[in-house]
Specification:
Blueprint: E1 21-26, E2 29-30, H1 33-36, E3 39-43, H2 50-54, E4 62-63, E5 77-83, H3 85-88, E6 95-98, E7 105-112, E8 115-119, E9 139-142, E10 152-158, E11 165-171, H4 173-208, H5 211-230, H6 233-237, H7 244-256, H8 258-268, H9 271-274, H10 276-302, H11 305-335, H12 341-362, H13 370-373, H14 375-451, H15 457-478, H16 482-489, H17 491-504, E12 509-516, H18 523-544, E13 548-556, E14 559-566, H19 582-591, E15 595-600, E16 606-613
Helix pairs in contact: 4-5, 5-7, 5-8, 5-14, 8-10, 10-11, 11-12, 12-14, 14-15, 14-19, 16-17, 16-18
GO molecular function: protein histidine kinase activity
EC number: 2.7.13.3
Pfam families: 7TMR-DISM_7TM, 7TMR-DISMED2, HATPase_c
């Protein structure tokens, strides 16, 4: 049946086959087993009936000389006999707390002179919650020690094929209330903080759609479920009638916490982009891990003790190897100076250290205390804190980067404004010079000519021709006042008219092509493009001596591309001269963080290519 599932040692976290431990205390004071004359006995089954107990042979009981029995991870149940008188000399206890909620089957008796004077129902982690003597997560027996002088307290436990830890606390009523309230407060506070962190990070995932917060939320969920099952809270409140879920939930969520943990650091270090081979290795490692875990769950749930024993032995080999591989991978990423890799190294190294402490405690190479016995919990807490610190550090780094980019963008906008203003001032000076030298001069000559010209048909024709030519020149110069023209006609129409004007004057055979949308740009970007085209065409007409040319503008997905070429005299040594006006154009494109390329040689034509992203400069 599923209730026989023993998966909390499967595939992860290094449980070893060692000796069972019995710890007896009275109101927190440790009691020496040998002095208290505590005895134990092993049986090959879990028959805990009264008849089975009465049939136990008295000479089979063995005295404790240490805190451990000589057998564990074997098909034997362990019985303990504790003389009540040896406890009464410390305190007159009122409660006996067997403080391990994960004993498969458990039954207790009070016996005197070989006769059962009080017995308790068979209970355990594999039986419904209501079978417990009190509705508590551990096994608490309300027994007044003073009523049972000279009697023995018998404990029968079934924890076969796994390590048995049996902390038995004898409490006075006041001490029991103090201990239970303190434990409830710590448990509630701990799980409450984790639940708050879970909800907060899940909210961040919903708001920001960053998988990093999703994986951390899933990791916290796994830890909450594991702690809930380990402490017996989920069994008590959520599935008290389905004890087989204890081993399933506890083992599975603990093992599966490895999945969001690895994926969290995959996202944090951006391994998919920066180290695709490592990312693919992790992907297949997790696929294999989850597959083997599924097989272990199914076979252990419906198999026998031999199958379960096989997975226990496999776990002792696989778990250290998996953790070592992931740790070495983190060290490799750190060696390659991958950002945030130090957090991965600290995280995996920490979990290995805490699990090693737990294993050393299990094999009794280090003494048992509150820290070593709960090293798994400390490891999980450490892991969660490192991941939270990594998120906080990442946020700090992103905040600093955004502030730095904001400052750079502000400086860039100021430089663009200054360069644009300088360029406009230059254009205004050029237009002023043209008005003075061309329009003013022509008007002067026209007046002089009309003063001395007879008012004949031929004279009027000359005056009309001169006025028409003057109007043509004024119309040509008016295109320099781009903001007014652009607002009235739009960028495409203005450039098209400039091209047509050049063609009508038979100056250059200029081909014009526009690809992409013709509307939707801000007036600031239209002015920038218009000024660039003006400079390019001015260079074409004044300096290139070309007979043909080509102008292309592409607007696509926020990217602006300008390309022009001609068959003119080109540039000597492909060098841009300040006098050509292209140097200021190059400076402007540089401020826009665009690309500016010229390909030219003397007497071999000229081509220019400009690209920049309009989305980054909407406030130019």
């Amino acid at each position: 049946m599923l209730r026989k599932l023993l998966l909390h040692v499967l595939l992860l976290f290094m449980c070893s086959a060692v000796q069972a431990q019995l710890n007896i205390s009275s109101d927190g004071h440790q009691i020496d087993h040998e002095t208290a004359k505590i005895q134990y006995l092993l049986t090959p089954n879990n028959d805990f009936s009264d008849a089975a107990f009465l049939n136990l042979q008295e000479d089979k009981w063995q005295n404790f000389t240490t805190t451990k029995t000589p057998d564990s991870h074997t098909p034997y149940s362990v019985w303990f006999k504790i003389p009540i008188n040896s406890l009464l000399k410390y305190n007159n206890f009122s409660f006996i707390d067997i403080h391990n909620p994960h004993i498969n089957f458990l039954k207790c008796w009070i016996v005197k002179d070989g006769k059962i004077i009080r017995k308790f129902n068979r209970t355990g982690d594999n039986l419904p919650f209501w079978t417990r003597p009190l509705p508590t997560t551990t096994f608490v027996y309300p027994i007044s020690g003073a009523l049972y002088k000279d009697a023995d307290f018998i404990i029968a436990t079934d924890k076969r094929y796994t390590k048995l830890d049996l902390p038995v606390h004898f409490y006075t009523e006041a001490q029991y209330l103090k201990e239970s309230q303190s434990e409830s407060m710590v448990t509630g506070l701990f799980i409450g903080v984790l639940f708050f962190a879970l909800m907060f990070n899940f909210y961040l995932y919903i708001s920001m759609r960053l998988n990093l917060y999703l994986w951390y939320s899933l990791y916290l969920l796994m830890i909450i479920l594991y702690l809930g099952t380990s402490m017996g809270e989920l069994f008590k409140y959520f599935y008290p009638e389905y004890p087989f879920l204890n081993d399933i939930v506890r083992s599975t969520v603990f093992a599966l916490s490895f999945v969001p943990q690895v994926n969290f650091f995959n996202e944090l270090m951006d391994l998919k982009v920066k180290m695709p081979k490592v990312y693919r290795f992790n992907y297949w490692l997790l696929i294999v891990f989850v597959t083997v875990l599924f097989v272990a769950v199914v076979t252990s749930a419906y198999g026998n003790f031999r199958v379960q024993g096989f997975w226990l032995q496999a776990n002792r080999l696989v778990s250290p190897l998996v953790m070592l591989v992931i740790l070495l991978e983190a060290v490799y990423c750190f060696y390659n100076r991958l950002k945030y890799s130090l957090f991965a190294v600290v995280s995996f190294f920490g979990i290995v250290v805490f699990m090693s402490i737990y294993v050393l405690h299990q094999v009794e190479l280090i003494p048992r205390n509150n820290f070593t016995a709960t090293a798994v919990y400390w490891g999980l807490l450490f892991e969660g804190m490192v991941m939270a610190l990594a998120l906080a550090w990442r946020f700090k780094s992103y905040k600093e980067d955004s502030e730095r980019l904001y400052v750079e963008n502000q400086l860039q906008q100021e430089n663009i404004f200054k360069e644009t203003a300088k360029y406009q001032q230059k254009e205004m000076q050029r237009m002023s010079s043209l008005l003075h030298d061309t329009v003013g001069a022509n008007l002067g000559f026209l007046r002089l000519e009309t003063d001395n010209m007879p008012l004949t048909e031929e004279g009027r024709a000359k005056i009309a021709s001169a006025i028409t030519q003057l109007g043509h020149e004024v119309r040509t110069m008016s295109h320099g006042f781009s903001p007014l023209i652009l607002q009235g006609k739009g960028l495409y129409q203005c450039i098209a008219e400039m091209v047509q004007l050049i063609l009508r004057n038979n100056q250059v055979d200029l081909q014009f092509e526009w690809l992409g949308k013709k509307e939707g740009m801000t007036i600031q970007n239209e002015i920038l493009i218009y000024r660039m085209i003006q400079e390019i065409l001015q260079n074409l007409l004044k300096h290139s001596k070309a007979t043909s040319g080509f102008l292309q503008i592409i607007i696509e997905q926020g990217l602006i591309s300008i390309y022009a070429e001609d068959n003119g005299v080109g540039l000597k040594d492909n060098t841009v001269s300040d006098g050509l006006g292209l140097k200021s154009l190059e400076n402007l494109v540089e401020l826009l963080k665009g690309s500016f390329n010229i390909d030219s040689a003397e007497n071999k034509g000229f081509s220019i290519s400009i690209e920049f992203n309009q989305a980054n400069h909407e406030k130019v």
